[in-house]
Amino acid sequence: MTRRSALVAVLALAACAPAVPDSGVGFQDYNSYVRNAGPATGGGSTASAPAGGFNPSAAAAAIDRAEGRAPAAAAAPAPVAVSGDRPRGNAPIGIKEESGEMIHAGISDENDFKAVSARETIESDKERIARNRSQYVVVQPKDLPARPGDTGPNIVAFALATTHNPGTQMYSRSSLRGNSTSACARYASPDKAQQEFLAKGGPEKDRAGLDPDGDGFACDWDPRPFRTALQ
């Protein structure tokens, strides 16, 4: 009886002991070893977070459950509104893509016979000409307004009252002439010199020595532009 009990105990211990794995090159063929030693194909399980680590999502869910609120779901991205005015090509919304074609809406086609004949007739053309003639207004010239106050001699009126060209002697001058170049240098322009020349008795008298050749025009002043403007 004692021997039988000992045998049962030995068998029980053998059943509880872990089996020694028959692995390695010495216990199976080489091909099976290489096949089993290679990396496993297919989807493997991902490593989970350590049990003792802090998980912010789990903590937030626990707080929501404690307060009686449902866990907040992840916000879904807002749908993109489809606009009928979306530009062609890859241009972003809001930027209009131009075709590059030039539109000449303001160019008249009056010289195009086909275009004119398609919309005009002889009668309509006569009516249009008559309408334009009735609206034609001729502006009559008027006298220049009077100059306010005393602004000195009018060099424009003097230029229009003369007909000779510069350099033509019209008035006598003394043979004792001063330096007209230095005298004219005191004025900002020939117009200013001519106005001062007329104010001091010119063209008959030349007290400042501005008109040494006696043509009546001081410091190379030229009346011809004023005459041309009147024509």
UniProtKB/TrEMBL annotation:
Residues 75-84 have a biased composition (Low complexity). Residues 1-19 form the signal peptide. Residues 75-96, 194-231 are annotated as: Disordered. This is Excalibur calcium-binding domain-containing protein. Keywords: Signal.
